[in-house]
Structures are given as structure tokens and as C-alpha cells.
């Protein structure tokens, strides 16, 4: 009987330690890129504009200290440069992106100021005959759950 009690207590402790670990688990796809994050709340779906130019730089950054890294690019049209945030790195790296530095692109997005920095949050990027869809018609990011029409087309 003593052995059975020990096994029961051991099983309970393993079970409860797993529950505690799950409560502290940060699921892939969060990293503060979600809909309720202060970064994502800066996106204004009613203020979309189109920007075009040649890509001069593609790099990574973290919009806030808490966020995982994201991908951005700089496009230049004549003398005007625009910094364009595309999305989280873990999402962007799995997209079929066919554009690179020195290629012409057209970006649909909204200009925002976030933590003192001004940039464009992209909704889609057009290049040649492809479109990289980053947000749906309501402005919900493609990386926030399953979407039927995301990625490139």
C-alpha cells in the first residue's frame, strides 16, 4: 500500500508540474506580434496608401524589447526613403519572396509612429506579377492564425 501511495503522489506531482509549465509557455506566433499587442494596435486599416520604389535594404529588427525579431526593408523613390515593416521573422522567412535589393516594388500599407519611430506597416507587397499578402481586408495579419488567402499568389 505504501508503494501505491508513493506512485500516486509522484504521478500527481508530474501532472501539476506539467500544468504549471504550460501556463508559462509562450506559443509560437505570439512574441508580442499578436492582435492585442501595442505594436499591432498601431496598424490603421483605414489609412492605407501605396508606396513604390527600389528596395535598397532588407534587414531585421525588434520593434520593442519584448518582441522577437521582424523583417523590414527600405525602399527609395527619387530622393524619398521609406522604411517598411513586413512582419515577424519566423513568418516572413517561410514566404516565397521573390524580390530583393535593387528591385522595384509597390507596397500597400499605413504610415505609423511607434515608440518615436516612423515607418510603414505593410499590408501587401507587389513585385513583378506576384503579391506578398501580409494582412487581410480587415487588416488582420496573416501570421495571426489560419487564413485561406495568405502568402504569395
Structure report:
- The protein is an alpha+beta fold.
- It has one domain (40-152): Beta Barrel (OB fold (Dihydrolipoamide Acetyltransferase, E2P)), CATH 2.40.50.
- 17% of the residues lie in helices and 38% in strands.
- The protein contains two helices and seven strands, in the order αβββαββββ.
- It has a five-stranded mixed β-barrel.
- The longest helix has 22 residues, at 2-23.
- It is globular and about 80 Å long.
Task: From the structure above, extract its key features.
single chain; alpha+beta; OB fold (Dihydrolipoamide Acetyltransferase, E2P); five-stranded mixed barrel; 2 helices
Helix content: 10-25%
First-last Cα distance: 65 Å
Total count of domains: 1
Task: Tell the overall outline.
Answer: globular
Main beta sheet: strand number and arrangement?
Answer: 5 strands, mixed, barrel
CATH architecture: Beta Barrel
What is the spatial order of strands in the main beta sheet? 1-2-3-5-4
Query: What is the third-level CATH name, the topology?
Result: OB fold (Dihydrolipoamide Acetyltransferase, E2P)
Number of H/I helices: 2
The CATH superfamily bears the name: Nucleic acid-binding proteins
CATH hierarchy, class: Mainly Beta
Mean pLDDT metric: 82
- Radius of gyration equals 21 Å
Parts with pLDDT < 50 across at least 5 consecutive residues: 18-29
Assembly state here? single chain
**What structural category arises from helix and sheet content?**
alpha+beta
